[in-house]
Every structure is written in C-alpha cells, then in structure tokens.
Amino acid sequence: MAKASKKFKPVSESELKTLVQKYSTSSAEYYSSKLSEERKKVMEYYHGEKPAPSHAGNSKYVSMDVFDAVESLKAVLLETFSAGNKIVSFDPQSDADVEPMRVATEYADYVVFRQNDAYGIFSSIIQDGLMARTGIAKVWWDECYEEQEEEFSDIDVDSLEMLSSQEDIENVDAEHDPETGLFSGTLTRKIDKSQVRYVPVAPEEFLITSTAPSIHEAHFVAHKTRKTRSELISMGYDKDLVYGIGNSDDDEVSMSPERLARFEDIGTGMVNLEEDQDSEQTEHVIVTEAYMPIDMDGSGVAKLWKITMGGTDTILDKEQVDRKPFICFTPLPLPHAFYGGNYAARVIPTQNARTVLVRGILDHTVITNNPRLMVVKGAVQNPKELLENRVGGLVNVSRPDGIIPLQQSGLNPFVFQTIQLLDEDKEEVTGVSRLSQGLNKDAVSKQNSQAMVNDMVSLSQQREKIVARNFANHFIKELYLEVYRLVLLNEKKPKVIRIAGNFVQVDPTEWAEEVTCTVELKLGYNEQQQEAMKYLTIHSTLAADPGNARLYNEQNRYAVFKTALEKTGIKQVNQFLTDPSTLGAPQPDPFKVQEMQLESRKVAVQESVAQTSAKKTDDHAQIEMLKLQLEKMQMQMEQVLRNREVDVKQFTAESNAALHTQELHLVEKEMEQNPPQTQAVIRT
C-alpha cells in the first residue's frame, strides 16, 4: 500500500511576519553584541579618539596607526581597481562569441564605471571591508522613467492616432481646429532610464544568520534601512499600507553603536537631527527587505522569496526571486564563515603601544624643560610668583638655595628601539611595508639598481596582492557577472554607446546565456609597465627575423601594440593606432611613390635619348642611303644622257646619211627626168 504524500499548509501573512521578525531579531542581537562593539571600537581608533590619556595633564598625542594602515591599503586597492584598466573580461565559448563577448565586456565596464560612481562605491566597500570585516554592495535592475513634455501642431487624425499608439507616449491633450481639420496640443513622452545600479550597504543595515558560510548559502539575508513614507510611495507601494507602518523600531538602526561612532567626530547631535521631522510624509520608518526560502503555497518545495516589510507588522510586498542581490568583499576570509578577520582591529595593539611610548617621550620632555621644584619653607616670599610659572618671570627668594629642581630619571634608552620594533610589527601585521610606499630610504638608494628595487617592492607587496585578489575574485568578478545577468534579462532594445572613441551598437539578445569571466590583476604602475614591455619584447623578437614575415603580419603587429598600450592604462588606443582591417587596400608610401616617379622619369628620359639617338642613326642611314640613291640616280641619268647623246649622234648621223641618200635619190630622179644639155664632169 502506497504511503500518502505529506501535505503542507500555505504560509499565511501573519506567519510570514513572524518569520521575518524572528530572523531579523536574531541577526540584530548578534550584531548588537560583539560585532557591533568591535566596529565601534575600530571607528574610534580610526578617528584617533583612543587610547585616551591615562591622567589629566598628560600628553594627548594619539598614534594614527589604524588610520594609516586602512588608508594605505585602501589607496593601493583603489588605484588598482578604480582606474578601469579592463581587469575583467568575459570568455567567449566559440569563435562566434569573440566579438559579442568583447562588446559585452566593454558594456559591463560602461555600466560599472560610467553609469555608476565606481570610485565612490569601491572606496566605501573597501573601507567597510577593512574596518568592519566585510563590505557589502547591493546590485539590482532599477526601472526608472523620465517624463518629458512635448508639443505638436497641425497634424491630421491618422498622425494623431499613430502618435497616441506609441508605447512611450502618454497624456495626449489635443485640440481640433475646425477650419483646417488639424490637431494641435501637448503630450508626455516616457523615456526609459532603466539601468543596473549598485550601492554600498552600511554594515549595520545588513543582516545575515550568524552561522552562514556565505550569502548564497545563508538561510536569511536582509537589508534593513530607513525610508521616509514619501519615498516608499514614490517607489510604488500602497499609500494606505505605508501610512499604516509604525515607527517604534526606528532606533534600532539610527542608534546603532557603529553608526554613532561614525559621526562621533562631528558631534552626536548630528545623528538624530533628521529625526525632528516637520510632517508625517517625511517621517522615517524602518523597511526590511528580507530574502529567505519559503514554501509559500504548501507544495513541499521551498523557494527563494523577497519579503519587503515596513516596521514590524506591515508587509509591503512579496515576490519570488531567483537570487539574492548582494555581493561582498572580505579582506581576510576565514573558511566556512561569512565574516572574516578584522584588518583594522589587528593594528589596535600597535596604536596603543606606540601612543604610550610617544606620550612618554613628550611627557618626559615637558617635565625636563619644566621640572617639579623642591622649595625650602619660607624661602619664597610670594608663592604666587612660583605657581604662575611665567616665561622669564621673577621669583623673589630669601636665600639662593631655597628652590631646587627635583631630580628626574633619564629617558629609557630602549624607547626609540621599541618604536622601531613596533613599526616592523605593524608591517608584518598589515602586510603594507614602507618599501612598497617608497618610504624606505635604505632600499631606495643609488646603491641598488632599479631592477633590484622593483623586485624588492614586488616581494614586499605579497600580502597586498592577496587582499587585492580577494577583492577582484570575490567582489569585482561577481559584480560583472551580475551586471551581465541583469542586462541580459532586462535590456531588450539595442543601445549605442561610445567605447574607446567609437560608437558601438550593443545588442544583449546576441549574448550567450551562460558566461564565465577572467580576472587579470596587476598591482601598481610598475607591474603594468613590465607587462607592456613583454609585448614590446615579443614585437622586437618577431620583427627582427625576416622569416617571420608571414607569421607576424600587419594585423599581428597591431594586436601587439594595442595590447601594450592598454596594459599601460591608455584607453583611447584608436587615437594612436589604426586597425589594418578597416583600411582596405594599403596606400603606397609617399616617399616611395616619389622615388618611383623619379625613376620612371629617368627611364623615360633615357628612352627618349635612346629614341633620339636611334632616330638620329636611322636618319643618318637614310641620308646616306638617299645619297647613294641620288648618286646612283645621277649615274643612271648621266648614263642615260650619254646613251642619249650617242643615240642622238647616231640618229643625227643616220639622219644625215638618210638625208644625203634621199637627196641623192632625188637628184638621180631629177636627172633621170631632166637629163642635162651639156656633158659635165661630175666630181666626187
């Protein structure tokens, strides 16, 4: 037979109030005892109020060892983390995630350092961690809108309907013009200013179960703060519920020991000045924002709920959430415990001892310069002259040996040696050495090389580096992951932000749901410079070998120089380097272009000279050929002339012969026709 499942009752509102009140009270009792008194004591030593003088009239000198230890380490951590040197980067899961993760890292830097006051918040968190064991920050998505009134004129009905249908338009007040049929009026535009916010939480306002190992594993975590009723109404809570909150529990936060000690140096009257309110609207009430697992519906499975309660009997809101919005920094963590060691409290014995020794030196100096006197009875005529103790004053005595200074013991010769031992003890306790601050003249001298001094400084910063890594891994890393998660869940529209001088579109919908991040920590400028030099050395090595031309191309060189500049803290890298991938085809070197032009001109001149020379040679050859042809033609003409002369002579001779023959024939013919009368002798 199957066993019937156990049934649970839903949690009623009265039971919910009881649970929140019970855990708040138990946590508050733990705070108001040892932890709260410790914080008060540390604050008094930090302000130099303790140790108080043991006797009236003694020196009131107070050694500020607690202040010096806290501020020295805070300065190192702030210089390291508040400069925005890209300490955290999101890891791409594939090649397609490289660019989205780069943009996500830049956008997270934008949220942490530009949308919020990173310097002020980090300063408060670090100081709380060093003085109150842990520093707490609250991270959440703040939905806020800004209303802006605008005017419109002369639009038709369709445009008015389209304008009214927009999501960010409210309170459209339009007037119709019957002559033109158009509309004019005003509207309210609702501008979304929602963003990720993170603020420091005062130590006395944060509640957690005393045995919790961490925030995530704690059964109960709460933020107990003071709000005015007007602030609660502006946050969206019901007006009737807000004015039904009692204020009987108000002194629990405002009069806590550490809060009183925080304002002690300016007067305790400043603490309660805000309590005298002029109206009920500005009256302060206690608001507890509690996070605890509750089986609200009786299903048998407890889920994380956020319960907002005003005073001790009014539940303002309850909401199921997926995580607690708190992250913490613990400088000296202890295993299996939420609260670690108190850094500042460890310096209190040094401040007590050093104060006593220095006061002894000062008191001894005062007594030596103004000793107590032994006076013979009746030797001083007017004792008032001796009691006034004026500088250069006169004392009338009846005998010269009537006033004798009491003999004082000398100053202990080991006092100054003990003070030096206390300085060394302070360095060992805090981990902040004089060498790391550049105050050790013996180490920072001309006898030691720069490299040796740098090595000594680096070794002296080991404890500081551990505290810095605790801040980086437990606070900064968690902060970036929470910023990533909140942006991914709530940022639905792309944004355009300016990153390194360029406007980049950020679309969180393209980001991966699961992400990891890497923390890269460099403590101080020296290590940053050394890291940059590594990349410059890589460039020198690769560029020196011509065989690496294919392996080490223009894009690789750009990446090396870009990383080296970023390591030195330069953000606007694009002002000094241009990404080769954005250039397109490479432009020729102007000097080389001029050289090529000169060479081409030289070649052209040489070709022209060669052509001219060749042409001259050809012309000379042609001339010679023409001369030969002319001579040949002349010879031919002369031959023709000679031939013609011969022909003419021959023709003339032949013609003469023919003519003579013809004449003879004519004569003979005539003689035959007309014979002569007398015989004549013909002579030939």
TrEMBL record:
Pfam families documented for this protein: SU10_portal
InterPro entries, A to Z: SU10_portal
Name of this protein: Portal protein
